[in-house]
C-alpha cells in the first residue's frame, strides 16, 4: 500500500499500449517532492488479467493517474471506449452548445492509449491510438468513474423522493406573492421549491386579468399548447367536450393521462364567479395516498405500479388522442428507482383488452383500494379559489377536482411541461456549472441536481 500524498511527475509519461497485453506494468508515479533526492518512482499498474474484472475487462479498462484520488484506495477503472467517447476537449464537446461533436461510432472498438501526460492541477492529456489527444479535467474523472447502480428494490417495494404533505384545514398553505415572483429569480426559486416540496402553491395578489396570469406562468417557462390551446381563458360552455368545461362535480384526478408526456405543472386563476356559488377546489396528495396504499397492502401497490392502463381524449370530432403505450397508475423512475408520477383519471381511462380475467379482478381490487384512500376526508384539501389568488400544482403528484357550482365562472391558466419545469428548478436551486457537471448522474443524494425528478 502506498503511504503519504501522491505527487505526479510533470511532462509525458511514456507507456506502451496495454490492449491485449496481460499484466502490463505502466507509467510511473512519483512519491514525495520532485525537488528532493528522496523522491522515487513506483510502477503504476493497469488492471491485470487476474483482477476481479477478469481477462475480458483487462483489455477494455484503464486506470489513470489522478492527484485527487486517495492513495489508500485503488484508482477507479474507466472503460477505454467510454473514455475516448467522452473526451472533454473542444474538438469533442462544443464549447458553446455543450453538445457532443465527436463521431462516436467511428471510434475503433479496440481503441487504446499510447501516451499519458498528467500535469499538476491541469487536465490529464491522453494520446489515443487513433491519433486523437484527449483532455480530462481531474474533476470530470472524479465524478465520472464507474459506480455500482442503485440497489434494486424487491418486487413489491415502492420508494419515494423526499416530499412533505399538507394537512387538510391547516391555517396556511404554501404561498408566495405575485410581485416578488415577478421581481426576482430568488422568489421564483422559492415558488418552485414550494411546488416541488409540497405539491402546490398559491400566488397571492395576482392581478385579476389574463395577461398578468400568463406573465406569471412565463416566469417558469413557455406555456404548453395542447388541443385545448395554449393559455386558457374559458367558461363552462363545453367549447371542448371535456368534463372540466361543465359545472358538474369533478372527482380527484390528474390531467393528461391520454398524453405520452403529461404536463407537469397546472395553474388556475379564477377571474370571476357571477350569479352563483360552489366550485370549491379539491387537492389530494397522490404520493401520500400511494404511500398509505403500500403500507396497507404492498401487493395492491405493486399491481398499480406494473399494470398499464389505456387512456384517451376523444370528445371533439377532430381528436382521438392516446398515449404511445399503456402506462401504470404509479410511474417509477428507471434509474433511481423512485416513484415520480401518478396517472389517475377514471374519466379518461379507456378499454383495456390485453389482460386475463384474473388480472382484471386483481387490478380492480387494487384500484378500488387506492380510490378509497383518495376519498378519505383526511386526504382531501378543499379551498375556495378567489380572484387575485392563483393556484399552481404538480400534476405528476397532486390530484385535483372541484365541487359542482352554479352561475358563471371565468377561469384562466395553463400547463408547463415536465422537462421545462425541472430545468428551471434545478438551475435555480444549483449553479449552472454544478448542473452541467452532473449530467447523467443517478446517485440518490441531495447534492445531485438530477435526484430531483
From TrEMBL:
Residues 73-137 form the Gamma-butyrobetaine hydroxylase-like N-terminal domain. InterPro entries: AlphaKG_dependent_hydroxylases, GBBH-like_N, GBBH-like_N_sf, TauD-like_sf, TauD/TfdA-like, Trimethyllysine_dOase. Keywords: Carnitine biosynthesis, Dioxygenase, Iron, Metal-binding, Oxidoreductase. Residues 139-160 are annotated as: Disordered. It is an enzyme of class 1 (oxidoreductase). Residues 171-415 form the TauD/TfdA-like domain. Transmembrane segments: none annotated. Its cofactor is L-ascorbate; Fe(2+). It catalyses: N(6),N(6),N(6)-trimethyl-L-lysine + 2-oxoglutarate + O2 = (3S)-3-hydroxy-N(6),N(6),N(6)-trimethyl-L-lysine + succinate + CO2. It comes from the Eukaryota. Pathway: Amine and polyamine biosynthesis; carnitine biosynthesis. Pfam families: GBBH-like_N, TauD. Its EC number is 1.14.11.8. SUPFAM superfamilies: Clavaminate synthase-like (SSF51197). Converts trimethyllysine (TML) into hydroxytrimethyllysine (HTML). Belongs to the gamma-BBH/TMLD family. PANTHER family: GAMMA-BUTYROBETAINE HYDROXYLASE-RELATED, TRIMETHYLLYSINE DIOXYGENASE, MITOCHONDRIAL. This is trimethyllysine dioxygenase. The lineage of its organism: Eukaryota, Fungi, Dikarya, Ascomycota, Pezizomycotina.
Amino acid at each position: 500500500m502506498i503511504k503519504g500524498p501522491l505527487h505526479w511527475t510533470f511532462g509525458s509519461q511514456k507507456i506502451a499500449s496495454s490492449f491485449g497485453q496481460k499484466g502490463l506494468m505502466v507509467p510511473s508515479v512519483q512519491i514525495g517532492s520532485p525537488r528532493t533526492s528522496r523522491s522515487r518512482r513506483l510502477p503504476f499498474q493497469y488492471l491485470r488479467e487476474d483482477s476481479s474484472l477478469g481477462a475480458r475487462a483487462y483489455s477494455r479498462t484503464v486506470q489513470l493517474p489522478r492527484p485527487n484520488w486517495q492513495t489508500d484506495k485503488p484508482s477507479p477503472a474507466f472503460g477505454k471506449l467510454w473514455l475516448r467517447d467522452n473526451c472533454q476537449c473542444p474538438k469533442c464537446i462544443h464549447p458553446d452548445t455543450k453538445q457532443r461533436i465527436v463521431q462516436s461510432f467511428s471510434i475503433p472498438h479496440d481503441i487504446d492509449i499510447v501516451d499519458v501526460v498528467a500535469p499538476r492541477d491541469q487536465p490529464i492529456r491522453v494520446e489515443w491510438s487513433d491519433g486523437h489527444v484527449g483532455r480530462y479535467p481531474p474533476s470530470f474523472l472524479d465524478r465520472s468513474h464507474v459506480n455500482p447502480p442503485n440497489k434494486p428494490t424487491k418486487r413489491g417495494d415502492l420508494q419515494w423522493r423526499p416530499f412533505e404533505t399538507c394537512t387538510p384545514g391547516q391555517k396556511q398553505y404554501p404561498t408566495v406573492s405575485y410581485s416578488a415572483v415577478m421581481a426576482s429569480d430568488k422568489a421564483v426559486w422559492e415558488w418552485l421549491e414550494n411546488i416541488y416540496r409540497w405539491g402546490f402553491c398559491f400566488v397571492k395578489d395576482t392581478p385579476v386579468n389574463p395577461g398578468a396570469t400568463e406573465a406569471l406562468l412565463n416566469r417558469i417557462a413557455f406555456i404548453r399548447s395542447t388541443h385545448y390551446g395554449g393559455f386558457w381563458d374559458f367558461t363552462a360552455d363545453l367549447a371542448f367536450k371535456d368534463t372540466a368545461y361543465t359545472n358538474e362535480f369533478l372527482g380527484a384526478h390528474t390531467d393528461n393521462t391520454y398524453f405520452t408526456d403529461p404536463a407537469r405543472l397546472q395553474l388556475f386563476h379564477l377571474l370571476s364567479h357571477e350569479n352563483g356559488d360552489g366550485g370549491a377546489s379539491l387537492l389530494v396528495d397522490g404520493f401520500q395516498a400511494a404511500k398509505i396504499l403500500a403500507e396497507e397492502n404492498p401487493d395492491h401497490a405493486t399491481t398499480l405500479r406494473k399494470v398499464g392502463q389505456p387512456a384517451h381524449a376523444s370528445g371533439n370530432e377532430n381528436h382521438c388522442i392516446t398515449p404511445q403505450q399503456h402506462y401504470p397508475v404509479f410511474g417509477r423512475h428507471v434509474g433511481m428507482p423512485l416513484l415520480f408520477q401518478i396517472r389517475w383519471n377514471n374519466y379518461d381511462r379507456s378499454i383495456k383488452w390485453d389482460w386475463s380475467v384474473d388480472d382484471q379482478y386483481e387490478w380492480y381490487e387494487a384500484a378500488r383500494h387506492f380510490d378509497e384512500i383518495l376519498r378519505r376526508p383526511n386526504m382531501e384539501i378543499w379551498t375556495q379559489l378567489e380572484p387575485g389568488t392563483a393556484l399552481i400544482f404538480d400534476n405528476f403528484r397532486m390530484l385535483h377536482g372541484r365541487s359542482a357550482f352554479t352561475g358563471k365562472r371565468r377561469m384562466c391558466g395553463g400547463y408547463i411541461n415536465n422537462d421545462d419545469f425541472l430545468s428551471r428548478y434545478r438551475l435555480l436551486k444549483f449553479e449552472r456549472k454544478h448542473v452541467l457537471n452532473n449530467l447523467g448522474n443517478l446517485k440518490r443524494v441531495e447534492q445531485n441536481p438530477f435526484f430531483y425528478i
